[in-house]
Amino acid sequence: MGPRPLDHFRILYVCTGNICRSPIAERLTRRELDTRLNPRVAGRILVESAGTWGHVGAPMEEHAATVLDEYGADSGGFTGRELLDEHVVEADLVLTATLDHRAQVISMGHEAGLRTFTLKEFTRLVRTIDPGTLPDPRRGADVTERARALVRAAAALRGWLLAADPEIDELHDPYGAPIGMFRNCGEEIFHAVDPVVTALTGVRAPH
């Protein structure tokens, strides 16, 4: 396992089974990147997911796929996988559903602590970062350079900007719940992903 290539930036979403929360986050992020960036640039940000108890080879949960379809995101061709060391090694940014997932990723080693956050924690942190302090792709900076700078800035802030309640940084599991709970979860994920993609790319969502 060599160093992560600098010409790509890899995001890894982690939940428990890799059939509900992390697939929704993965595919919504992919949609937002493809909507905001030209294909050549968008293709340099890779988005994947895995589960700490991943349902290996399983399809996405049906309600999760429905939620993605309602957002206009691609739900096809997905298969669950278990989180492996190589996934953590290759990731530039790991975003988990819960604090327990974050702790599990960090416990795997690979110097993952400074690049692993819960999704909602990362969103909370990046909202406080002045975009003007990040490399600007519109002025010739590389999108991967900006993304790495954002992760470093968020890691530096984490010890100073603690959540008032740890629950704020958690994304609860809708597995086995009715479609309405999945829609609520999808809405939470979408509102967390949107500012993250804006911060990563420097491009706001089109209206």
TrEMBL record:
SMART domains: LMWPc
Domain called Phosphotyrosine protein phosphatase I: residue spans: 9-163
UniProt keyword annotations, A-Z: Hydrolase, Protein phosphatase
Superkingdom field: Bacteria
UniProt-listed Pfam families: LMWPc
PANTHER family: LOW MOLECULAR WEIGHT PROTEIN TYROSINE PHOSPHATASE, LOW MOLECULAR WEIGHT PROTEIN-TYROSINE-PHOSPHATASE ETP-RELATED
Record family assignment: Belongs to the low molecular weight phosphotyrosine protein phosphatase family.
Name of the protein described by the UniProt record: Protein-tyrosine-phosphatase
